[in-house]
Amino acid sequence: MTQSTSASKSENRYAAWLVAAAFIGPGTVTTASIAGAQFGYHVLWALCFSIVATWVLQDMAVRLGVSTKQGLAEAIQQAFQNRGLRLAAVALVIAAIGIGNAAYEGGNITGAALGLSQLTNMSIPLWVMCLSVIAGVLLWFGQSGLIERVLVGLVGVMSLIFIVTVIVAKPDIGALFTQALAPRFDSATFTVVLALIGTTIVPYNLFLHASLVSRYEGDSEAEMQRQRRSNSIAILAGGLITLAIMTTATATFFGSDKSLDASNIASQLSPLLGDMAANVFAIGLFAAGLTSAVTAPLAASYAVCGALGRKPQPQSTLFRSIWLTVLVTGAIVASVGFKPLTAMLFAQATNGMLLPFIAIFLLVAMNQRQRVEQAQNSLLMNALGLTIVLFTLALGARKVLGVF
């Protein structure tokens, strides 16, 4: 095995877990907490849909990356023979991922800054500035160093704490089934439903995952099976963590006279941690936010470079200019004074509206047998993918029409 192959294998080994860590960011913690606090398990159906849809789409991204040795953006570039369609697809990718990630980045930085502001006397805007510099340094010198591994580890610890808290709090399982079997989907729950979908099925993760697994130079069939197994386990774990967050918020806030806000969101960990809940929650929110604040601009660079027909080179001027633009824009969004929880919820809802367009491109790419060969979508995967596209399109259309 050559040195480059060994490096590629090392980089790809935890690709699925990096993707899972990316969607367990502050937006997920916030959105799942708001969903549980306001609506209990009546919106659990949206989380279940999101987990299945995430698995379906990330599985396609894995098969695309391993079989073609290309990222999703490069595949979109080559999927359309008609020049007009190709230019339209490229423009949409740049807008959806470039602009969309800027909004998402604002939520990431806001979440990390909120966590640190609760640990210190420094204001959120000041922490936004500091965190933007830290994220920029991590991106400039590479995202796979010790600092990021520590942050991902902290997110893992935070996730474990939520799961243990659920066990300690002994939630009402009867209420879970009763409410879950009485799903709500109305004007009151609409934004939360869209945000749950947007925070779980993250469009930029499709680009990031395909790009990461495309680097492996060994046996494609063996690597594909390994990556698909890792993807299934990581997505299921991410779904269980999100469910745990929703459950702790439901047990603490739903049906009570308390309303969730930035000052008391950590109280859902009190059954396990008592007076330490606020500090532990703040550390986890910081770690989740900074980890996602690094991966979102990184994915934008992979996506936009590929869409422009340029090979993504982390040290190139173009690659760095893209992530820097996303990072700076996100910092500005995080600094303008939106309420922290509102800003993060809005970012997830925006993601939900962008998703169907990226999913359409992924479906087109996965049905070009001459390029993906044996990795081509089956009839079942196409049916599932089309269902996801139609449902999320309907959600996005309803959101847009609701503005007028």
TrEMBL record:
<feature type="transmembrane region" description="Helical">
    <location>
        <begin position="378"/>
        <end position="397"/>
    </location>
</feature>
<feature type="transmembrane region" description="Helical">
    <location>
        <begin position="43"/>
        <end position="66"/>
    </location>
</feature>
<keyword id="KW-0472">Membrane</keyword>
<feature type="transmembrane region" description="Helical">
    <location>
        <begin position="317"/>
        <end position="338"/>
    </location>
</feature>
<dbReference type="InterPro" id="IPR001046">
    <property type="entry name" value="NRAMP_fam"/>
</dbReference>
<feature type="transmembrane region" description="Helical">
    <location>
        <begin position="344"/>
        <end position="366"/>
    </location>
</feature>
<protein>
    <submittedName>
        <fullName>Nramp family divalent metal transporter</fullName>
    </submittedName>
</protein>
<feature type="transmembrane region" description="Helical">
    <location>
        <begin position="189"/>
        <end position="212"/>
    </location>
</feature>
<keyword id="KW-1133">Transmembrane helix</keyword>
<feature type="transmembrane region" description="Helical">
    <location>
        <begin position="124"/>
        <end position="141"/>
    </location>
</feature>
<dbReference type="Pfam" id="PF01566">
    <property type="entry name" value="Nramp"/>
</dbReference>
<feature type="transmembrane region" description="Helical">
    <location>
        <begin position="14"/>
        <end position="37"/>
    </location>
</feature>
<keyword id="KW-0812">Transmembrane</keyword>
<keyword id="KW-0769">Symport</keyword>
<feature type="transmembrane region" description="Helical">
    <location>
        <begin position="87"/>
        <end position="104"/>
    </location>
</feature>
<feature type="transmembrane region" description="Helical">
    <location>
        <begin position="233"/>
        <end position="256"/>
    </location>
</feature>
<feature type="transmembrane region" description="Helical">
    <location>
        <begin position="276"/>
        <end position="305"/>
    </location>
</feature>
<keyword id="KW-0813">Transport</keyword>
<feature type="transmembrane region" description="Helical">
    <location>
        <begin position="150"/>
        <end position="169"/>
    </location>
</feature>
